[in-house]
Amino acid sequence: MTDNKAFVTYGEGAFLNAKKALLSCDLTRLKGKSVLIKPNIGRIASPGKGINTHPDAIAGVIEALQESGCSKIAIGESPILGVDTLVAFKKAGVEDVAKKYKVELIDMDRRSFVVKAIPNARILDSTKICDTIYEFDYILSLPVAKSHMHTGVTLGIKNMKGCLYRREKVRYHQLEYKEGAIYPDLTLDTAISDLATVLLPDLTVIDGFIGMEGFGPSGGDAVQGNFAVASNNPMAADVAGCLMMGFEPKDVGHLRIISERLGMSIEPKDYDISPAGYEKHSVKFRPPPKDIAIEYPDVVLYDKESCSACLSTVMFFLKRFKTDMRQYLLEDNKFHLAIGKGVTEEDIPVGTVCIGNCARSASAKGIFAQGCPPVPTQIYKAITGVEPDENEPEIN
Length: 396
What we know:
Elements: E1 5-10, H1 13-23, E2 34-39, H2 55-67, E3 72-77, H3 85-91, H4 94-101, E4 104-107, E5 113-117, E6 126-130, E7 138-142, E8 144-148, E9 152-154, H5 168-171, H6 187-196, E10 203-213, E11 221-224, E12 227-231, H7 234-244, H8 253-262, E13 272-274, E14 299-303, H9 308-321, E15 335-339, E16 353-355, E17 367-369, H10 376-384
Parallel strand pairs: 1-13, 2-3, 2-7, 3-4, 7-10, 8-10, 14-15, 15-16, 16-17
Antiparallel strand pairs: 1-12, 5-6, 8-9, 10-11, 10-12
């Protein structure tokens, strides 16, 4: 990437922040070209919750693209498993935006896919990507700024995971390194870096109007950021986005790995981020918790050398599904969970739920939920043998 510029706007609401940030970029290459907008509409939630990209930010981006002479603009998404894309679009206010600006809405799950081989793969030899994105000249990633309990943050590059075809997104949470692999990173971060070798956005606009902190991507708290970031360079955008959220880019696993593998600097000093003094308008997002005090008296957690991602998964799982676990209590009338690479069979009673790949060595005495980390619905299925009635509850 030769363009090292990123532009920050703030204080003018979702629409103007997004529009002005994008128009600050060099968009001459877009004239007469088609652009697919890939927002983050992964869940059924109304605007203003910090869960999905704000519809006004999408409107601002559409206007900027129209003013730049794009020949065709569409909005496409492949949400989490179990969510109907068109229902999510409607609830999020995106359907109304599409009608106003006469742009096509695309449910990418109803199309087909292509299989892309991963060069110099670390954990994925290949991956299934929705073929819709290859019908357009350019793809614009339009995420909402969120803390993320598995990846630290979710911004423009991570948002490309929403281009994976249907269950392929779930597979990224179930991967294990091949025997002999020596990579120290979470498998999910490594998988995202594999994806980045074949798929990066051409443009990025980060919607920081109302983001999410803490237990993102859906269980955290809304936070008023009132900013946007735009760039032709995906790493420049995500670096600036991290800074506007109060995070150090080098502490975000998937960004660090992508930087190392693709030679894209993760150092803020290597980017021209405008305007001067933008840092004064940053908003410190609360990160995913690193040390969770389990507040449930009927839960026993065996935790030895776990990471923050598994700790966050445990808390979010309990938040969503604890009331469904009554029949899985042990003789002491408590629900037993184990996480961390240091936990052993000697540490746990028979029937303990061992969560995450690191706890596999202890799982012979209990139930094993594979993943690095697994998502709460995967843990539920590992325990019960069935999918939950709702993949994600609708959020009004």
